[in-house]
Amino acid sequence: FPMSKQSIADQSAIIKLNPTQYAHILDNNSNVTRIIIGPKTHARQDHEMKLLGPEEMVLVPPRCYCIVKNPVKRDDKGDVSVDSRGQARLSYGEEEVRMAGQPFPLYPGEELIQLPTPLTIVPSQAALRLSAIRDFDDKVAGDEWLFTGPATYTPRVEVRVLGTVLATIVRPGTALRLRARQALRDAAGRERQAGEEWLMRAAGAYLPGVHEALVEVVLPMVLTPRLAIHLRARRTFVDALGRQRRAGEEWLFTSEDCETHIQDVHEEVVNASLDIVTLARNQYCTVRNPWDDEGRPQMGRLDLRRGERAFFLKPGEELVGGRILDVVVLGPDEALLLRATQPFTDAGDVARTPGDRWTVVGPCEYVPPVEVEVVKRYRAIPLDETEGIYVRNIKTGAVEMVIGRTYLLGPDEELWEKQLSPEVEDLLAMPHNDTKGVKVADMARAGGGRDKTRVVTYRTPHNSALQVYDYRQKSSRVVWGPGLVMLAPDEQFTILSLSGGKPKKQNQIHALSLSLGPDFMTDVVVVETSDHARLQIQLSYNWKFDIDSHSRNMEDAAKIFQVPDFIGDACKAIASRVRGAVAAASFDDFHKNSAEIIRVAVFGRDADGHIKDAFHFPSNKLVITNIDIQSVEPVDQRTRDALSYSVQQAIEITTKSQEASARHDAERKAQEAVGVLERQKLKDEIEAEQTRRALLELQVRRQLQAACLPAAALGAHTAVQIATVFIITAGT
Hints:
Elements: H1 5-9, E1 14-17, E2 21-27, E3 32-37, E4 40-43, E5 48-56, E6 64-69, E7 95-99, E8 111-118, E9 120-122, E10 126-132, E11 144-148, E12 151-153, E13 159-166, E14 168-170, E15 175-180, E16 184-185, E17 191-192, E18 197-200, E19 204-206, E20 212-218, E21 221-222, E22 227-233, E23 237-238, E24 244-245, E25 250-253, E26 260-261, E27 267-275, E28 277-279, E29 283-288, E30 302-306, E31 309-311, E32 318-319, E33 325-326, E34 328-330, E35 334-340, E36 344-345, E37 351-352, E38 357-361, E39 364-366, E40 372-379, E41 388-393, E42 399-403, E43 413-415, H2 422-429, E44 438-439, H3 440-443, E45 457-460, E46 464-470, E47 475-480, E48 483-486, E49 491-493, E50 496-500, E51 505-511, E52 513-515, E53 519-528, E54 534-545, H4 554-560, H5 566-583, H6 587-592, H7 594-603, E55 615-617, E56 622-634, H8 637-708, H9 716-731
Helix pairs in contact: 5-7, 8-9
């Protein structure tokens, strides 16, 4: 044994050992280490060396154990076996468990690998999981078993403790899910294969077997009258209610079956909280793929269910549309359009075939059967005397107009949409549509939607006319304003496309109604005089249609609409006459007599040589009653510039003349003012001198009076002299 420096230095000759001590002595001659046990006093020889000691013997208390590695061998009597040299024989690589007893020494080569340790106490409802690491008795290396309590476990070197297994309390209504690690027989005596799982439902403490693994504690799923559990079988088995379930089969557990349910290992929970479907008295639903009374699903069928009732949807069942519907409550002015999808007999014992259409008219409550499709729900349409709708019969295709009464569509009728041209739609949508029409540029900005099923109406303005054409009858009618036009299904408005702008251009104004006048229109005409002066004349014409408001007839109506663009036609005719008349006159003559020349050209003269009052158009009864010349301007730029220059020069001359006259008047008035001022200054100076003289006289008199008082005693001659001096002084 290797010795430390302290052991080599502590080589006393006498070794004293107590009764519970021992020491190891090495004989250097034989190289044998022996043990000496107290009580003893040993005299060490020169060839001996103390390797260990004195050391206390190993004391194992009661209910304890220790483990010694490389223990000594013993004979049948229990004595230590030694060789011929006295060396104790060891079992190298072995271990020995030593229990409580007399203290014992460790022989040379022995090692205490585990100090005295209390024995393991296994309580009740617990066990030690043991494994054999070598063959002994009836055990083979690798075997595992449980050492169940309550007991005290005595360890063996052939056995290894893998762990402690505790019992699991199985409460009422719960279960343990177990899995077999290998083939075994469970607590109920059933054979289980490796990997198989099962439930332990018995209430109480359960200690899993050595080859059983606790997967989980299965808690119960509580069932209420409004909740159910949707399950699916993973394999064929018998459930907790004793019913055989086939692999893939689905079913429901409700509160009628049991209050709680523990999921079996062969069950798969599809939906753990399936809500109940509750229908009120005024509700219904349609279930697809319903189950029959024997619990078999009827795939592809439909089942109508009406409240009051509550039910769970069985596996495979589903609500059509995914929702509960309200019973259709029809008012007195409502109806349902129905269509049969399957042959059946309705509540009125009427046989219906697929495709049949009929209506149910209120007031009533209606639940459509599964063989019936609700096409639409609609109301009766109330109509005033000036309102109407277009109704089309889907069987015959005939379209009629219903006006002035409340109308409920029949099963073979539908609302018909009357199509109008985009121009008419724009004109009807204009907020301020009158007899003057609408400009084409403004029509593009017109907006608004029209209900095309309603009868097209148009209020014809006062003193106007509107033409409507019937394409079926191939005839037209004229409505005189004020009036209301209601288009029949085959009628269309006649759009008036009139000229507009200055000068007039075609297709500038669209209108539905034609104004009968009186009104005016303005045009610009370019003419050329006999001396080749080109002038631009802006003329305004007053016009009207020669129609008697009391005796309007179809002949008059037909004539006023014979000319599509009466404005353009009239302006062209008048412009032609004006150009011809101006071409025969010189510029100076036309400039002096423009009004007479134009009026004579347009109206002409009667037999007496007087200018007529009107210009008639017999084709459409249009009458021009007056012409106003608003402006005359030269067309040639040079002529216009020369005329403008001459006018400007005349204005400048007049202005300068007025400025000179004004300046002369101003100078004259200034000189007169200076003379008056000078005269006034002279008058003021004279008055000032006169006032000054009077003042001096007064001052002299006062001084004389003041001087005469002290000289009363003097003579008269002296007084006169003094007065003379004062007068001279005052004058100076």
